[in-house]
Amino acid sequence: MAYKPIGFVLGWTSGTVAGMAFQKTWKVIRHEDDAPDALDRDRRWGEILLAAAIQGAIFAVVRSAVDRAGAKAIERSTGTWPVPDKGGRD
Q: What is the pLDDT of residue 19?
């Protein structure tokens, strides 16, 4: 139960970090400041789906890394794993 507020902060932080990482990655890949949005009329399907795939992959990796680091920190400081069962968040 004590991990819930920490998990919330870590989730918010990971989302922010992932968003920044995606923006930088998109700028390197396409040399554009803004990634296409699904409702952007002037973008092709391929651009939109590529951006979504990259964004999803980055988000999943950053979220997993931050969650794992947070859980390991809790385990080191308390001696117990923060989640009692083997199941994850999803």
A: 93
Asked if 57 and 68 touch (Cβ cutoff 8 Å), the reply is: no
Say how far apart CA 23 and CA 39 lie, in whole Å: 18
Single-letter amino acid code for the residue at 20: M
Give the contacts of 27 (CB within 8 A, at least 6 positions apart). Answer: 33
Q: Are 3 and 83 in contact (CB under 8 A)?
A: yes
Q: Give 13's Cβ-side CA count (13 Å radius).
A: 12
| pLDDT class of 10 with cuts at 50, 70, 90 | confident
* Class of residue 51 by CB neighbours under 10 A (exposed 0-12, middle 13-18, buried 19+): buried
> What pTM did the predictor assign?
0.80
Distance of CA 34 to the CA centre of its chain: 18
Instruction: Say what the pLDDT of residue 84 is.
Output: 76
